[in-house]
Amino acid sequence: MIRLRHYRQAGDLVYDIAGQFLLEAGARHDGMAIEREFANGVLSYRFAIGVPASSQERSLRAEFVAGAANPAVFADGPRCLRHRWSNDSLCMWDPDAPASERWVCGDGLPALATHARLHLHCEAECRVGRPWPKAEMAGDHPRKRQCPSCRGKGR
């Protein structure tokens, strides 16, 4: 079986058509319904996931940009600004962490979806005022007054 290689940077996938084919084939093999788009140098995959311990289904967009170490993953629905990057993408792992502690291309889109599921479950817990249920990246994660879902207090 041919396996997708681990790139140094996820953005290397942008111009690797064979790598894209393997990533997509692996996702479809695992039953994922994905949509692919390439525009302005950005390779995007859209797919839906269920959020654990809820009846929510969320639409995700994973963007791969040439030269970027990690994909940016965006989710529709309620947000928790404590654990989002400034561009509103999910802050799912420390981007400088070793490959064993974050997603890399060779893990495949199903593994990326699993990271997102866990992150969105944690966001839901945070929005209702409970503590973040998994280890957080180092640094402060204050509740933000401008957060549309908890306004800095949790619900």
Can you describe what's shown?
Strand 3 and strand 4 (72-75) form a beta hairpin. The protein is built from 2 helices and 4 strands; from the N terminus they run αββββα. The protein has a single domain, classed as Ubiquitin Conjugating Enzyme (Roll), CATH 3.10.110. The protein is α+β, with helices and mostly antiparallel strands. A 4-stranded antiparallel sheet has the order 1-2-3-4. The protein is globular. The mean pLDDT is 83. The chain has helices at residues 17-29, 109-127, and strands at residues 35-39, 42-50, 57-65, 72-75. The longest helix has 19 residues, at 109-127.
Sheet of most strands: 4 strands, antiparallel
Please name the CATH architecture.
Roll
Q: Give the assembly state of these chains.
A: single chain
SSE-based structural type: alpha+beta
What is the arithmetic mean of pLDDT?
83
C-alpha geometry? globular
Say what the CATH topology is: Ubiquitin Conjugating Enzyme
Strand arrangement across the biggest beta sheet: 1-2-3-4
- CATH C-level: Alpha Beta
Strand proportion: 15-25%
Helix content: 10-25%
